[in-house]
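Session log. Operator J.P. requested a structure for one protein chain; no other inputs attached. Running the standard single-chain path with token output.
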Amino acid sequence: MREIPVLLCRAPHQGAQVPSTLSPRHTTNAPSRRWRDRLLTRVDERIEQFLATERQRWAAFDPDSVEVLDCVVGMFGSGGKRLRPAFCIAGYLAAGGDPDDPAIVDVAAALELLHSFALLHDDVMDASERRRNRPTAHVLHEELHGQRGWRGEGRRYGEAVAVLGGDLALVYAERLLADCPPGVRRIWGELCTELVVGQFLDLRSAAQFEADPERARCIALLKSGHYTVSRPLTLGAALAGEERLLAPFEEYGMAVGEAFQLRDDLLDFFGDAVLTGKPGQLDLQQHKMTLLMSLALRDQPVVQALFAGDGTTPDPDVLRHLLNATGVRDRVEEVIEERVIAAGRAIDGTLTPEWVAEFLAMANEAAYRNG
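Structure written below.
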């Protein structure tokens, strides 16, 4: 395995105590959350207005052109958790940022559009047929190709439209960030680079299919940990001009982000497809070498035997039973719990008690969600 930058995989600092307010299902209704939610509403309004203006502009130029734009409109309009904007806004407000400054709305909106970019491409790479309980963009446009009796291969057409839709979402995100300060742009560049490299390493490890739990955790940090929590938080702090919080926010974010990805891995195997909004066992079908699978294949001969045949995918029900029976699922749950505790250590003493409570609540919501 090639060495992955230490910065991306470093352990949390030792010796700090877990805040007494930490609990496995901590929630809050404090003013901090109400301010955050007000700004999240403004983020949705900003994106809706931006996309509506773009759609009107391109419809006037050529009505057919809006079909690629509608990939972005459809992904954004299908819902989602808005986790990345939420963490960005929380970082900004906790760092003393002005809630009336429109710049925070644009930065948070850019993160959500970046997420649309990532999901549109991800669905193509994973050959996923559903996202948020709707047909994925590439499936929808493959079907349209067939219904219209067009020439060429419908599958390739659908995938190409979805990829271009993702590209357009990234372009729109960049446009919203055009006037941001250099420090914010630097973090944004790091975020985008980490996301792409993490996705590539995830793809490559699936092709190699070698059990390496350490590498699996580093990939989880790259493709999700930084992208979902760490960089959005530091973007918010940088926009607020509070560099003192960049290090603890990064440490907290890496811990919560990894817990978020590990929960995603468990939901893929054990979750309810109605709640997750996408087909189950996609990781198994795509041979993803998650921490769950790396631990199982490295340490459990009974699981190794399932993959020792002709390369066909094992029965998901049999594998799910073994992951439970051998304790591999519990081991991943233990890592998630440790990461949530590490997140609490990272912010202890750095924020006001109200914001500490809010950050703990957000950590638990990300790590213990069911969809």
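Operator note: The longest helix spans residues 31-61.
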